[in-house]
Write a structure and sequence with these properties.
The chain has 297 residues and is of the alpha/beta class. Helix 6 packs parallel to helix 9 and helix 7 crosses helix 8. The longest helix is centred in the N-terminal third of the chain and has 17 residues. The chain is elongated and about 80 Å long. The protein starts with 28 loop residues before the first helix and ends with a strand. 38% of the residues are buried.
């Protein structure tokens, strides 16, 4: 049974060049840009985006790097992707978009140009984005040169959050609906199987692995036995990266092995575990970890 990942990252850039003058950009340039973006969103009935400190720190750092090294790109000076900045800052997200501009001397000019670009306007009006980071840096250049003198960075992100609803009941409902569609009876929640599943979800998150066998060799059968479940059969489905029960179950349905496990006619009970690790800096970096134990006694 393989790993499923559904953490999405969108990163786009349109290089803009305007004619910037020597006018001094206001100290509150970030707030001015934020106000303009939110005014546009209000016109379309959308909630405003908020200035997120970590995104803003990294946007400003990127603007300074571009000014210092005289380039225009979402990549860092060493070639790393922009996402590297956010991971170092400890900001976790479902989706992220980066927009750059250079040459514009005023915030209003930058936003007006972004709003006039179809692809960028679509991102500005994406209802799923809630956080924003804004950065600006300038450099002194001669009027007689063609080098860029104003650098702007906008980051929009859909933050990663723990699932807030009753995820155990939601998965049970979806799995039973799937079984019903194939003429099978419903499963019921077993407390002991839930203890085993929760332990494994927590263990994968804390010890940075994604596998049915734990680093010390523990198996799903042993976990069920330790939880007091005297089983004749026990099966296990795992998922990593999906932020909702719906996406976890859909991933299982699309996988032959997981699908067979959910449609096994002999199982009668199930237990579910979920762990959320927002600062997931290990090798797996899934943030969301799901485990489902199924069996009969």
């Amino acid at each position: 049974m393989g790993r499923f990942a559904h953490i999405l990252s969108i990163c786009g850039v349109i290089f803009l060049a305007g004619i910037g003058g020597p006018d001094k950009v206001r100290a509150d340039a970030s707030l001015a840009i934020l106000d303009e973006i939110n005014a546009l969103r209000r016109q379309h009935g959308l909630a405003p985006v908020r200035l997120e400190p970590r995104l803003t720190v990294e946007a400003r750092a990127h603007a300074r790097d571009m000014a210092r090294h005289d380039y225009l790109d979402t990549r860092l000076p060493n070639g790393d992707k922009f996402e590297t900045r956010l991971k170092r800052a400890g900001y976790t997200y479902k989706r992220m978009f980066v927009q750059l501009a250079a040459g514009f001397s005023t915030p209003l000019g930058v936003v007006a140009r972004w709003a006039s670009q179809k692809a960028t306007r679509r991102q500005l009006l994406d209802k799923r984005f809630a956080d924003a980071g804004l950065g600006y840096a300038a450099k002194q250049v001669s009027r007689n040169t063609q080098r860029l003198d104003h650098f702007w960075v906008l980051t929009l992100a859909e933050p990663s959050t723990a699932f807030r609803g009753d995820w155990r009941r939601e998965i049970l409902r979806r799995v039973n609906a799937f079984r019903s569609g194939h003429g099978l009876g419903p499963l019921r929640i077993d407390r002991r199987l839930s203890v085993a599943a929760q332990h494994h979800a927590d263990d994968m998150a804390s010890r940075d692995y994604f596998d049915h066998v734990s680093p010390d060799g523990g198996t799903h059968g042993e976990r069920a036995s330790r939880a007091g479940y005297r089983w004749r059969m026990v099966l296990e489905n795992l998922a990593a990266g999906q932020p909702t029960p719906a996406e976890a179950v859909e991933g299982w349905k699309d996988s032959p092995g997981h699908r067979r496990a959910m449609l096994n006619p002999e199982i009668r009970e199930m237990g579910i575990g979920y762990a959320y690790l927002p600062q997931d800096r290990g090798q797996v970096k899934a943030v969301h970890y799901w485990a489902m134990s199924m069996g009969h006694r």
